[in-house]
Amino acid sequence: MSTSSSNRGISRRGFLKGAGVTAAGAAIGESAVVAFAEESAPKGPKIVGPKPLSVSLKVNGAEKSAAIEPRTTLAEALRVNLDMTGTKIVCDRGACSACTVWIDGTPVNSCMTLAIDAQGKDIRTIEGLAMGDTLHPVQEQFIEHDAMQCGFCTPGMIMSCAALLEHNKNPSLDDVKTATSGNLCRCGTYPKVFDATLAAAKMMKA
Fold first, then answer.
1. Residue 73 pairs with which residues in a beta bridge?
2. What is the topology classification, in CATH, of domain 53-205?
3. Residue 175, number of CB atoms within 10 A of its CB
4. Alpha-carbon distance 67 to 101, whole Å?
5. Using one digit for the tens of pLDDT, what is the confidence trace for 68-77?
């Protein structure tokens, strides 16, 4: 006995065709929503890496170029890529300040600073502290007062002390202690460091 399709309701073939059209429409609709969301989303910072990229750093008044990975710290870039090994890496976590350099005149831990973030800024290292063959007064007085032993902390210590004298021409002992409070010396030469810095301040005033 035959029965009309209107009596039997939707056929299996019709159901499958309808389901396919519905699924396709849903997929198209979903992709359109995703595309719209991506276009409407706020644009974040440009993503770089992981391959090396070219950077230009102004170090001690000279422009220097290097190809580095984005994760490279300024301390690593100076030592490894630019062969400027005066800056020391000791703790490599910002705890000892042996890697201190100046960025725009402010002492910073270069092991905690990405090299790509130092682009366009004025970087000064221990190599650029002296004026040619003439030592900076802090360097000279460190030698005079024997304010160094193993030498690991010395570059960072000198950069912190010299930065103090750039901003304070007549520091007190407490000022020097505060300026070097983040610089760790395993040899314990702090008293000589303080004396050398105060002597350098007198030299600079003379």
1. 114
2. Ubiquitin-like (UB roll) (3.10.20)
3. 18
4. 21
5. 999 999 999 9
Quickly count: other Cβ atoms within 10 Å of residue 87's Cβ: 25
Give the integer Cα–Cα distance in Å for 120 and 6. Answer: 78
In the block, residue with structure tokens 């939707």 = 10
Residues with Cβ within 8 Å of residue 70, at least 6 apart in sequence: 48, 49, 50, 53, 114, 116
Please name the residues in contact with 183: beta carbons below 8 A apart, sequence gap of 6 or more: 96, 97, 98, 100, 153, 156, 157, 160
Domain coordinates in residue numbering, the chain: 10-40, 53-205
- Give the whole-angstrom CA distance, residue 21 versus residue 51: 45
| pLDDT tens digits along 25-63 | 555 566 666 666 667 667 777 777 678 999 999 999 999
- Amino acid identity of residue 87, one-letter, is T
